[in-house]
Automatic annotation (TrEMBL):
Binds 2 magnesium ions per subunit. This is ADP-ribosylarginine hydrolase Tri1 (Immunit y protein Tri1) (Tri1-Sp). Its cofactor is Mg(2+). GO terms for molecular function: hydrolase activity; metal ion binding.
Length: 251
Protein backbone atom coordinates (compact mmCIF):
# COMPACT_ATOMS: atom_id res chain seq x y z
CA UNK A 1 0.00 0.00 0.00
CA UNK A 2 1.23 3.46 -0.87
CA UNK A 3 0.59 5.25 2.39
CA UNK A 4 -0.43 8.92 1.92
CA UNK A 5 2.33 11.33 2.86
CA UNK A 6 0.29 13.06 5.55
CA UNK A 7 -1.06 9.95 7.27
CA UNK A 8 1.43 9.64 10.13
CA UNK A 9 -0.68 7.09 12.04
CA UNK A 10 -0.60 4.59 9.19
CA UNK A 11 3.04 5.42 8.58
CA UNK A 12 3.88 4.70 12.21
CA UNK A 13 2.10 1.34 12.06
CA UNK A 14 3.91 0.50 8.86
CA UNK A 15 7.30 1.09 10.49
CA UNK A 16 6.54 -1.59 13.08
CA UNK A 17 5.82 -4.23 10.43
CA UNK A 18 8.41 -6.90 9.76
CA UNK A 19 8.57 -9.71 7.27
CA UNK A 20 9.70 -11.88 10.20
CA UNK A 21 6.47 -11.21 12.12
CA UNK A 22 5.01 -14.67 11.48
CA UNK A 23 8.21 -16.38 12.59
CA UNK A 24 8.31 -14.25 15.71
CA UNK A 25 4.68 -14.95 16.62
CA UNK A 26 5.33 -18.67 16.29
CA UNK A 27 8.30 -18.46 18.66
CA UNK A 28 8.37 -18.06 22.39
CA UNK A 29 8.27 -14.53 23.74
CA UNK A 30 11.85 -14.84 24.92
CA UNK A 31 13.19 -15.62 21.45
CA UNK A 32 15.29 -12.73 20.18
CA UNK A 33 15.40 -11.48 16.62
CA UNK A 34 18.95 -12.75 16.32
CA UNK A 35 17.76 -16.19 17.37
CA UNK A 36 15.21 -16.30 14.55
CA UNK A 37 17.79 -15.22 11.98
CA UNK A 38 20.30 -17.73 13.34
CA UNK A 39 17.70 -20.50 13.05
CA UNK A 40 16.94 -19.63 9.43
CA UNK A 41 20.64 -19.44 8.59
CA UNK A 42 21.36 -22.82 10.18
CA UNK A 43 18.58 -24.51 8.21
CA UNK A 44 19.48 -23.19 4.77
CA UNK A 45 22.88 -22.26 3.35
CA UNK A 46 21.31 -19.92 0.82
CA UNK A 47 19.44 -18.14 3.58
CA UNK A 48 22.67 -17.96 5.56
CA UNK A 49 24.40 -16.21 2.65
CA UNK A 50 21.47 -13.83 2.09
CA UNK A 51 21.35 -12.83 5.76
CA UNK A 52 25.11 -12.31 5.74
CA UNK A 53 24.83 -10.13 2.66
CA UNK A 54 22.20 -7.85 4.20
CA UNK A 55 23.93 -7.67 7.58
CA UNK A 56 27.23 -6.91 5.87
CA UNK A 57 25.61 -4.10 3.93
CA UNK A 58 23.99 -2.56 7.01
CA UNK A 59 27.18 -2.83 9.08
CA UNK A 60 29.43 -1.44 6.37
CA UNK A 61 26.96 1.33 5.61
CA UNK A 62 26.75 2.31 9.28
CA UNK A 63 30.54 2.25 9.73
CA UNK A 64 31.05 4.51 6.72
CA UNK A 65 28.12 6.89 7.38
CA UNK A 66 30.03 9.27 9.72
CA UNK A 67 32.66 9.79 7.00
CA UNK A 68 30.33 9.94 4.00
CA UNK A 69 31.10 12.74 1.52
CA UNK A 70 34.53 13.35 3.04
CA UNK A 71 37.37 13.86 0.57
CA UNK A 72 39.42 10.76 -0.17
CA UNK A 73 42.89 10.91 1.36
CA UNK A 74 45.38 8.46 -0.05
CA UNK A 75 47.93 9.13 2.69
CA UNK A 76 48.53 6.32 5.19
CA UNK A 77 46.62 6.85 8.43
CA UNK A 78 49.77 6.73 10.51
CA UNK A 79 51.31 9.71 8.71
CA UNK A 80 48.21 11.83 9.32
CA UNK A 81 47.50 10.79 12.88
CA UNK A 82 48.57 14.20 14.21
CA UNK A 83 46.43 16.18 11.76
CA UNK A 84 43.53 17.44 13.88
CA UNK A 85 41.56 18.49 10.80
CA UNK A 86 41.55 15.15 9.02
CA UNK A 87 38.40 12.94 9.19
CA UNK A 88 39.53 9.73 10.76
CA UNK A 89 38.34 6.31 11.93
CA UNK A 90 40.72 4.79 14.45
CA UNK A 91 41.96 1.28 13.73
CA UNK A 92 41.33 0.22 17.33
CA UNK A 93 38.21 0.30 19.49
CA UNK A 94 37.77 2.82 22.30
CA UNK A 95 35.73 1.51 25.23
CA UNK A 96 34.49 -1.23 22.95
CA UNK A 97 33.23 1.15 20.27
CA UNK A 98 34.43 2.62 17.00
CA UNK A 99 36.20 5.92 17.45
CA UNK A 100 35.83 8.70 14.86
CA UNK A 101 37.39 12.13 14.60
CA UNK A 102 36.23 15.15 12.59
CA UNK A 103 33.25 13.31 11.13
CA UNK A 104 31.22 14.89 8.35
CA UNK A 105 27.97 13.04 9.15
CA UNK A 106 25.89 15.01 6.67
CA UNK A 107 22.66 13.27 7.69
CA UNK A 108 23.08 13.66 11.47
CA UNK A 109 22.96 9.91 12.06
CA UNK A 110 23.76 8.26 15.36
CA UNK A 111 26.60 5.76 15.59
CA UNK A 112 25.35 2.47 14.17
CA UNK A 113 22.59 3.91 11.97
CA UNK A 114 22.72 3.09 8.26
CA UNK A 115 21.91 5.32 5.29
CA UNK A 116 19.62 5.13 2.28
CA UNK A 117 21.86 2.47 0.71
CA UNK A 118 20.90 -0.20 3.24
CA UNK A 119 17.33 1.06 3.63
CA UNK A 120 16.44 0.81 -0.05
CA UNK A 121 18.10 -2.60 -0.33
CA UNK A 122 15.98 -3.82 2.59
CA UNK A 123 12.87 -2.51 0.83
CA UNK A 124 13.80 -4.51 -2.26
CA UNK A 125 14.46 -7.62 -0.18
CA UNK A 126 11.03 -7.27 1.47
CA UNK A 127 9.40 -6.92 -1.93
CA UNK A 128 11.09 -10.03 -3.35
CA UNK A 129 10.25 -12.12 -0.30
CA UNK A 130 6.64 -10.92 -0.13
CA UNK A 131 5.84 -11.24 -3.84
CA UNK A 132 7.94 -14.31 -4.52
CA UNK A 133 9.18 -12.69 -7.73
CA UNK A 134 10.39 -9.33 -8.98
CA UNK A 135 7.54 -6.79 -8.96
CA UNK A 136 8.67 -3.32 -9.99
CA UNK A 137 5.48 -1.60 -8.86
CA UNK A 138 5.66 -3.18 -5.41
CA UNK A 139 9.34 -2.29 -5.00
CA UNK A 140 8.71 1.33 -5.99
CA UNK A 141 5.82 1.66 -3.55
CA UNK A 142 8.06 0.38 -0.75
CA UNK A 143 10.74 2.93 -1.65
CA UNK A 144 8.07 5.62 -1.53
CA UNK A 145 7.06 4.46 1.96
CA UNK A 146 10.73 4.45 2.98
CA UNK A 147 11.16 8.12 2.21
CA UNK A 148 7.91 9.48 3.58
CA UNK A 149 7.39 7.18 6.57
CA UNK A 150 10.74 5.68 7.56
CA UNK A 151 9.98 2.15 6.36
CA UNK A 152 13.15 0.00 6.59
CA UNK A 153 15.34 2.85 7.77
CA UNK A 154 17.54 2.91 10.87
CA UNK A 155 15.51 5.32 13.00
CA UNK A 156 11.96 4.78 11.75
CA UNK A 157 10.02 8.05 12.30
CA UNK A 158 11.99 10.22 14.72
CA UNK A 159 10.44 13.57 15.66
CA UNK A 160 13.59 14.59 17.54
CA UNK A 161 15.85 14.55 14.50
CA UNK A 162 17.03 17.89 13.13
CA UNK A 163 17.64 16.60 9.59
CA UNK A 164 14.90 14.43 8.15
CA UNK A 165 12.46 12.84 10.57
CA UNK A 166 11.62 9.93 8.28
CA UNK A 167 14.58 9.11 6.03
CA UNK A 168 17.77 10.54 4.54
CA UNK A 169 19.70 10.35 1.29
CA UNK A 170 17.08 11.09 -1.38
CA UNK A 171 18.57 11.53 -4.86
CA UNK A 172 17.07 13.68 -7.61
CA UNK A 173 16.06 10.73 -9.80
CA UNK A 174 14.38 9.01 -6.87
CA UNK A 175 12.49 12.21 -6.08
CA UNK A 176 11.19 12.47 -9.65
CA UNK A 177 10.13 8.84 -9.50
CA UNK A 178 8.07 9.50 -6.36
CA UNK A 179 6.12 12.22 -8.17
CA UNK A 180 5.27 9.72 -10.91
CA UNK A 181 4.17 7.14 -8.33
CA UNK A 182 1.77 9.58 -6.69
CA UNK A 183 0.35 10.75 -10.00
CA UNK A 184 -0.25 7.15 -11.08
CA UNK A 185 -2.15 6.41 -7.87
CA UNK A 186 -4.17 9.63 -8.08
CA UNK A 187 -5.11 8.94 -11.71
CA UNK A 188 -6.26 5.42 -10.84
CA UNK A 189 -8.37 6.72 -7.96
CA UNK A 190 -10.05 9.32 -10.17
CA UNK A 191 -10.83 6.64 -12.75
CA UNK A 192 -12.17 4.33 -10.04
CA UNK A 193 -9.53 1.71 -10.89
CA UNK A 194 -8.30 1.35 -7.34
CA UNK A 195 -10.93 -0.23 -5.05
CA UNK A 196 -10.52 0.31 -1.33
CA UNK A 197 -8.02 -2.11 0.16
CA UNK A 198 -6.24 -2.74 -3.14
CA UNK A 199 -2.47 -2.37 -3.13
CA UNK A 200 -1.33 0.78 -4.86
CA UNK A 201 1.45 -1.30 -6.40
CA UNK A 202 -1.10 -2.64 -8.90
CA UNK A 203 -1.34 0.75 -10.65
CA UNK A 204 2.26 1.94 -10.27
CA UNK A 205 4.41 1.40 -13.40
CA UNK A 206 7.22 -1.12 -12.79
CA UNK A 207 9.75 1.27 -14.31
CA UNK A 208 10.17 5.02 -13.91
CA UNK A 209 8.94 6.45 -17.22
CA UNK A 210 11.88 8.78 -17.74
CA UNK A 211 13.17 9.83 -21.16
CA UNK A 212 16.30 11.46 -19.78
CA UNK A 213 19.71 9.81 -19.94
CA UNK A 214 20.92 10.73 -16.48
CA UNK A 215 20.80 7.46 -14.55
CA UNK A 216 23.42 7.44 -11.82
CA UNK A 217 24.93 4.70 -9.68
CA UNK A 218 21.89 4.34 -7.43
CA UNK A 219 21.15 0.75 -8.35
CA UNK A 220 24.71 -0.32 -7.51
CA UNK A 221 24.27 1.15 -4.03
CA UNK A 222 20.66 0.21 -3.36
CA UNK A 223 19.95 -2.90 -5.38
CA UNK A 224 22.39 -5.84 -5.45
CA UNK A 225 22.40 -6.67 -1.75
CA UNK A 226 18.60 -6.69 -1.64
CA UNK A 227 18.44 -9.40 -4.29
CA UNK A 228 19.97 -12.48 -2.55
CA UNK A 229 16.97 -13.15 -0.25
CA UNK A 230 14.75 -13.70 -3.27
CA UNK A 231 17.38 -14.79 -5.77
CA UNK A 232 16.46 -18.47 -5.70
CA UNK A 233 12.95 -17.72 -6.94
CA UNK A 234 13.95 -15.23 -9.61
CA UNK A 235 14.02 -16.30 -13.24
CA UNK A 236 16.51 -15.00 -15.78
CA UNK A 237 13.94 -12.74 -17.45
CA UNK A 238 13.15 -11.15 -14.08
CA UNK A 239 16.83 -10.47 -13.44
CA UNK A 240 17.02 -8.87 -16.88
CA UNK A 241 13.97 -6.76 -16.06
CA UNK A 242 15.69 -5.50 -12.94
CA UNK A 243 18.76 -4.64 -14.98
CA UNK A 244 16.70 -2.66 -17.50
CA UNK A 245 14.95 -0.82 -14.69
CA UNK A 246 18.26 0.19 -13.12
CA UNK A 247 19.29 1.80 -16.41
CA UNK A 248 16.17 3.97 -16.44
CA UNK A 249 16.72 5.65 -13.09
CA UNK A 250 14.98 2.73 -11.41
CA UNK A 251 13.97 4.47 -8.20
Amino acid sequence: MCVPRNDKMLGSELCQWSILADAMSASSASTAWWGVLDKFAAEDRGCDSAIGCLLGLALGDAVGAPLEFCAVDASPQESCADDDRRPYLATTLKDGQLHYRNVRNKFDLKLGQWTDDASMALCLADSLLTCGHYNGGDARVRWHMWWFHGYCNAFRYDVDRRKGQTSVGLGSNVAKSFVEIERSVEAAQRADRLPKGTSHATVVPPVHQSDSNDAGNGFLAHGPTGIPPGLCSLQIHQCNAGSRQSKKSVQ
